Amino acid sequence: MEHNKTIHAIRIHKHGGPEVLTWDELTVGAPGPGEVQIEHKAIGLNFIEIYQRDGLYAMPLPTSLGSEAAGVVLAVGDGVKHLAVGNRVAYASGPAGAYSTARNMPANHVVKLPDHVSFELAASIMLKGLTAQYLLRRIRPVQKGETVLFHAAAGGVGQIACQWANYLGVRVIGTVSTDEKATIARAHGCAEVIVTSRENVVERVKALTDGKGVPVVYDSVGKATFTDSLDCLKPRGLMVSFGNASGAVDPVPLTMLAQRGSLMLTRPTLASFTADRAELEESAAELFEMVGSGKIKININQRFALKDAAQAQTKLAARQTTGSTVLIP
Ligand code: NDP
């Protein structure tokens, strides 16, 4: 099939700050076996792209960026059975390249969108919502009535996860950096909010749990919060360290877990929870139902043209965004 298409993509040719993002014209050929070609209608902005850009998650260069997008299937490669030209689709893992007007994508990462999920909505929930799904429902299913600590509660993943946990009957203590974000977190599932710029997280968590601590901490802030998060856990509690917004966590001696009473520690990735096609379909269906039924409200609080991805990343890194951010090609 002859199918060359001229596209534009945000790429990096070297690691660095937002200034290394370039707007490149490229040619994409026909999708290969097992691939589909997708014209993007909306693209999700996620913190992972900042790690990729600055080199914390090093990638062979030059590379396109972006992990999450929604759009329409333009062409289908050999062997792809579950998708057809014209399907409305989205994805949240697989090779980087979502920051583009169109691309070829391994079809096993791509799901069809129900009619009630718009492109912008899909681009704002696929990565963040599937992350919330595996954090709460699969790493260790949360239990009704228990209390958990969730950092960055007013952020993209945070708003979705805290609403979901609240729906499941969990009492969520959220952390945020400002009083404005505290109001947002309270409106999105947090029963209690700790404002990190003026409150001590460990002391407040202890006070809110009769001195006992929580059974699970969800920590995407990383370096700055890791040790405090361990100190918020009750003995045999689970530390879910799933991000590095403040920098990568230093190496962890196992004695840190032993001294605090047989703590458990996991460092999960969305990719490993969506690699199995059946698990991806099941998790996405659950997410679409939670959002479609109104149990989780999605706030797209920032929109940027794809070309302005550098501005969008700058705001995300500077803690100036809340909820989801989409890039429009
Ligand atoms: P957010 O919208 O949550 O933005 C990050 C937030 O982290 C900020 O708004 C800020 O909230 C908080 N933060 C604390 N310290 C810092 C700091 N030094 N610099 C910047 N932000 C800081 O982003 P996303 O929803 O895109 O992602 C949330 C986290 O989840 C990221 O760490 C990301 O890497 C991780 N993630 C992990 C996945 C996995 O499978 N492992 C998958 C998806 C996301 P505040 O100002 O309130 O403190």
Automatic annotation (TrEMBL):
Span of domain Enoyl reductase (ER): 16-327
Coiled-coil spans in chain: none
SUPFAM superfamilies cross-referenced by the UniProt entry: GroES-like (SSF50129), NAD(P)-binding Rossmann-fold domains (SSF51735)
Matches recorded under SMART domains: PKS_ER
UniProtKB keywords: NADP, Oxidoreductase
This protein's name: Quinone oxidoreductase
Organism: Limnobacter litoralis
Lineage, broadest ranks: Bacteria, Pseudomonadati, Pseudomonadota, Betaproteobacteria, Burkholderiales
